[in-house]
Description:
CATH architecture of the largest domain: 2-Layer Sandwich
Shape: rod-shaped
Strand content: 5-15%
Order of helices and strands: HHHEHEEHHEHH
Amino acid sequence: MGLRxxxxxxxxxxxxxxxxxxxYVSHRLLDxxxxxxxxxxxxxxxxxxxxxxxxxxxxxxxxxxxxxxxVFLPQTVPAYAATEIFGNLRTKYPDFIYKEATLNPTNPRDxxxxxxxxxxxxxxxxxxxxxxxGERETPTGRMLYIARPITISDPACLACHxxxxxxxxxxxxxxxxxxxxxxxxxxxxxxQVVSVPMSVPLADAQRTFNTFMLSLGGIFLATFIVLNAMLxxxxxxxxxxxxxxxxxxxxxxxxxxxxxxxxxxxIAVLGSSxxxxxxxxxxxxxxxxx
Length: 290
């Protein structure tokens, strides 16, 4: 195995190990950053929904109180307002979902599906749980969700959700008397759930990862070429010249110039020693022949 092959083998192994470690660390870091970015987007949507709910309670509902005596206006319900606004958002961003998932909702569109029901049950089982988050696979790709409990902390809500007889007749006419009743004070009846797609940040992270690895591969290739050129110019060529000269001298051929010595590195020292040995050998042979 030649010196060049040994050198390149070690070089490839070192760079291969370095690229493997770099790929692992950078991929995990970029994936984590993508999740954090998605989590921030989901958190922003959740806070926006809470703002809409607060706005509806404080500013919209008081203006329509007089009309509520004759007709039920779902626009005064915070959950309805938040759901409608984010429903409009979905016309442009269909993968961004906001839902007030409820086990026994007044409006059937708010009924919790299986995985949402599991979240509600977790909140019902742990009164200290204020937020849950995680990932799930969907037909459109990975989604990240944030969920917060919906708890009946305001007794005024029970005016519409305790029994059908206590609810406004206008509400019964719209939604009927089979759903959305039997709620109790301080009961967790559902969860606000925001789902945000991870496809875009993950795709950005993958592009960044690919660019990084290509750049790292380009640096390795350039380094490989430069080091091999230096190896040939500074080490292999001088050693080959000395080896050829040694072969000729071993046969008694001294009709060749001395090895050129430049600088003070190890190859130059070796060249000086070689020249000195050549002169000593030539003198010794002359003495023997004389």
